[in-house]
Amino acid sequence: xxxxxxxxxxxxxxxxxxxxxxxxxxxxxxxxLAIKNDILGEDYSLSVAFVNEAQSQKINxxxxxxxxxxxxxSFAISKNSGELVLCPALIKKESIKSDxxxxxxxxxxxxxxxxHGMLHLEGMQHGSIMEKxxxxxxxxxxxxNRCGLVHNQSSGGRIYKRRKTS
Length: 166
Hints:
Blueprint (H helix, E strand, L loop, with lengths): L2 H6 L2 E3 L3 E5 L10 H8 L5 E6 L2 H12 L7 E7 L2 E6 L1 H9 L9 H16 L6 H15 L6 E4 L4 E4 L6
Parallel strand pairs: 2-3, 3-5
Antiparallel strand pairs: 1-2, 4-5, 6-7
């Protein structure tokens, strides 16, 4: 098996979390286990699957009756287990659209969506409480917030970062 095939079907066990990449895309390294333990707890068993747009559309149609691909789906299996299904190709497309991504690049948007999905598994619904939690964990794990503010501890201040436009 060559590296391309290994990346395509890579399954990593990270304690009580499994990450499966069924795409050809490279997935940025994220602190999945730390985020999971913080939001869902150490006893929670989580599966994270990266799928292509066709698979995302099929799953979304089957479980949500929406015939289109989506960036993330969260499935609570039991009180202490669940699954996140992410579509990195769609997330990459969304990261280019400044109106949908809160000014985040692909890796940043992916990290944000992992947090978002885990909060759904925790039982949260869209709204101001969930947005506050998203901001809290986004700052904690990625040292930023939805508005693009980066907290720079060394200079004691905040720096506003926007994506470069071409």
